[in-house]
Specification:
Length: 220
C-alpha cells in the first residue's frame, strides 16, 4: 500500500487502525482541536482538525476515520462526512486473510479485519466496519455506517440498512431486510424483516420499536 495516511481518532479504534495499517505510513493522528492534549500518540504526531484545511495535506494524504460505533455509528458518520466535504480521499483496510469475492464491492473508509468471507455480488457501502470472522452471503447489501462485531452471519440476498449494529454471534436468515438504525444484540437470530429503529435481543429475537424506552436506552 505504502500511502501516506492521516488517522482521525487517537482512542482504541485509532490505535487498532494504526496497527492494521502497518504497511502504510501513518504520518499523523488527527483529533478535534479541543481534544488535543498531547503532541503525539504511539510515537506519531497529533494534528488538530483545523490543520486539515491545509491544501498540501489534502493533496498528499489519505484519511481513515477510526471512530467507534457510538450512538449507532453516527459519531463516525458525522466526522467522515465533515472531512469528505473538505475534499480528502479516504482509504479502506482489508485484511489479507479474508476471502473477498472478485465480484464484491467495498466502499471507502471501511475496516475489514481478519477471516471474513464476503461472497459474490456483495455490496458493502461506505464507512462500514467488519470486526473479525464474519460471513456476508451472496448478493447481500450492507449500507453506509454499519458495524458488524465478530462471528456475525449475514445470509444471502439480505439488505442491511444504514447505521446498524450487529452483536457477536448474531445471525440473519436469507432474504431478510433490515432497515436503518437497527441494533441486533449478541447471539440474536433474525428470521424476518426488521423495521427501522428496532432492537433485537438474544435468541428469542425480542423486538422493541424505536420509541420504546429499551430502544432509546440501548442506543445511547
Amino acid at each position: 500500500m505504502n500511502e501516506k495516511l492521516i488517522i482521525f481518532g487517537n482512542g482504541e479504534f485509532g490505535s487498532m487502525a494504526n496497527y492494521y495499517f502497518k504497511n502504510s505510513k501513518t504520518s499523523y493522528f488527527c483529533v478535534d482541536d479541543n481534544y488535543v492534549k498531547e503532541s503525539n500518540f504511539e510515537g506519531i504526531p497529533i494534528i488538530p482538525y483545523s490543520e486539515l484545511l491545509n491544501i498540501k495535506l489534502k493533496n498528499d494524504y489519505k484519511v481513515f476515520v477510526a471512530l467507534s460505533y457510538k450512538n449507532m455509528n453516527k459519531v463516525r458518520e458525522a466526522k467522515y462526512k465533515q472531512i469528505k466535504k473538505l475534499g480528502f480521499t479516504f482509504t479502506s483496510f482489508i485484511h489479507k486473510s479474508s476471502y473477498i469475492s472478485d465480484k464484491a464491492t467495498i466502499g471507502e473508509n471501511c475496516l475489514i479485519l481478519e477471516n471474513q468471507t464476503i461472497q459474490k455480488n456483495v455490496i458493502i457501502k461506505n464507512n462500514v466496519f467488519l470486526w473479525s470472522g464474519n460471513h456476508v452471503g451472496h448478493n447481500s447489501i450492507i449500507d453506509d455506517n454499519t458495524y458488524l462485531s465478530s462471528h456475525v452471519v449475514i445470509s444471502g440476498d439480505c439488505k442491511v440498512g444504514k447505521n446498524c449494529f450487529f452483536g457477536v454471534n448474531s445471525s440473519v436468515k436469507d432474504s431478510v431486510i433490515i432497515k436503518d438504525e437497527v441494533l441486533i444484540g449478541m447471539g440474536a437470530s433474525v428470521t424476518k424483516n426488521i423495521a427501522e429503529g428496532s432492537v433485537v435481543i438474544n435468541n428469542n429475537s425480542t423486538i422493541y420499536d424505536k420509541n420504546s424506552k429499551v430502544s432509546k436506552f440501548l442506543k445511547i
